[in-house]
Amino acid sequence: MRYLLNESDHSVVNLDKLTSAWNPGSSIPANLHNGNYFFEQVNICDAAELDRVFQQHQPDAVMHLAAESHVDRSIDGLGDFIQTNIVETYTLLEATRKYWLSLGAEKKAAFRFHHISTDEVYGDLPHPDEVEGTLPLFTETTPYSPSSSYSASKASSDHLVLAWLYVPMVYLLSLPIVRIIAALITSQRN
Ligand SMILES: NC(=O)c1ccc[n+]([C@@H]2O[C@H](COP(=O)([O-])OP(=O)(O)OC[C@H]3O[C@@H](n4cnc5c(N)ncnc54)[C@H](O)[C@@H]3O)[C@@H](O)[C@H]2O)c1
Fold first, then answer.
1. Locate the NAD(P)-binding domain: which residues (predicted)?
2. Less packed terminus of the chain by CB within 10 Å, N or C?
């Protein structure tokens, strides 16, 4: 978001329901007044609110980052992960599809839905001390093998996004999946 706001003339509409996971330190302040920045306190499980936001802001692209992402909490709060990472992805995909179908041909062709995923959907790599020779790495062809409730729910959301490519009338919608490597993000934060 900061890159888009500082380095481009695009507008950004930030939707966040401000869960307990919301980090005011790393987020753009909700009350920032900037001609290119709009904040909407919206739960993306709320289809009616999503319709309103789509109609009001008429976006050219959606970046789906919202998630329940703290693995430790998935042990005693599994329901939040199912609701947030799976049901919210479905709701956002459906709201996006509805909006996308209303666009003219040119905007339809240019529209993008970026789904932000995680390398954890591939499971676990061995510790370097356990490996003799070259450390195996994940690649785009590594089979899914989630090993936590978090990674299982993110894998489910990946599959939903991929399945939406085959929903009638949506086959032209571009749905790239970006898998972030956890260690990289963690080191950026420190
Ligand atoms: N941080 C990492 O190391 C890492 C690594 C791999 C992948 N990812 C992925 O990147 C994305 C962002 O991760 P993060 O670490 O910034 O997460 P985060 O938990 O810091 O932020 C997620 C945000 O989503 C919001 N949110 C959750 N449910 C919502 C809902 N229903 N409606 C609206 N907003 C909602 C929360 O309030 C929070 O501000 C996630 O999809 C995550 O799975 C993160």
1. 3-164
2. C
